[in-house]
Fold this sequence. Notes:
Structural class: mainly beta
Oligomer: single chain
Strand content: over 45%
Radius of gyration: 28 Å
Number of helices: 4
Low-confidence stretches: 1-45
Number of strands: 22
Mean pLDDT: 84
Distance between the termini: 17 Å
Shape: rod-shaped
Order of helices and strands: HHHHEEEEEEEEEEEEEEEEEEEEEE
Largest sheet: 22 strands, antiparallel
Amino acid sequence: MEIVFNEPKEFVQTAFEPGKWVLGSEEIGxxxxxxxxxxxxxxxxxxxxxxxxxxxxxRFSSAEFKETKSLSICSKQKEVRPAYTxxxxxxxxxxxxxxxxxxxxxxTWPDGAKYEGLWKNNRANGNGKFWHNDGDVFIxxxxxxxxxxxxxxxxxxGAKYTGDWNNDNQDGYGVEIWPDKSNYEGFYKGGKKxxxxxxxxxxxxxxxxxxxxxxxxxxxxxxxxxxxxYTGQWLNNNMHGTGMYxxxxxxxxxxEYRFDKKHGVGKYTWGDGKQYIGGWKNGKQHGEGKYxxxxxxxxxxxxxxxxxVKIEHHVM
Length: 316
C-alpha cells in the first residue's frame, strides 16, 4: 500500500519558495494545537476587519454633492474661488468649473477629516489623500469618491495595506503588515484574502498557498519555526484532504486528513525508518494496518481508535 503525494503543477510553477522560510530553531515542545490556535487567531486579525469602520466614518456626503450642484454658476472656465462652506460645516478650497468641484482642491469636515487631491464632476476622482478623524490615512487613486486602483491605507494602530482597490475594498494584489511584523502578501477579492498568498506570522511560522474568503483553503504549504512542515490540501484553515507532514527529526506522515487530524489511509514513518501503513480515524490508527520494520519484517494488525485489536500475520 503506497501513497503517492503529488503537488499540483500549477502551484509548483508559482514564485513562492517556502523552503527558504525556515528561520531557525525553537523549542520542540510546541505542539500542533498551539500552532493551530495561532493560525486561527492571527487570521481573525484581518486588515479588512479594521476597514469595516472606515466606510461608516464621515467622508463625502451626497447632501454636499447636491448642494454644490444646485449652485447657479455656469462658468466653463477652471478657476480658483474663495473657500466655500457647506451647510454641514464642511469647507472646500480649490478649483471649480461651473458648479462642479473640478481640478485640485481640499475639503475639510468639522470633525477633522480631510481630503486633498483631484476632483472631477464634483467628486473626488484621481490621486488624493484622505485623513480620517481617528488618525487613519489613505493615499491613492479615487473614482467617484471611492478607493479604486492603487492605494495605501495606514491604520492609526500601526497596520498598513498597500495594493489594489476596487469600490473601497482590497481587490487584486496587495500587502498588509501588522505592528507585530506579521504580514500577508497576495491576492484579495471583495476585501478578503482570496487566491494565492503568503502569510508570515510573528512567531516565525509561514503559509504559502491558496485562500478562499479569508481562510486557508485549497493547496498550500505551512512551515513552523521548529522545522515542522505540512504540504497539502486545506479547508477553512484546517489540514483537510491529502497531505504530507514532516518533522525536523525525520518523522513523516503521508496520507489523508480531516479537519486537522489524520483520517483515512496514511503512512507514518519514524526517524529510525520504521513505518505504519494503514487506516486512521480522528488522528488514531483505525482499521487494517501494518508495521514495516527497518530490517524488512512486517506485522499486520487490526486497530480500533488507536488500540490493537488483533494480530493478523507476520512476514519475515
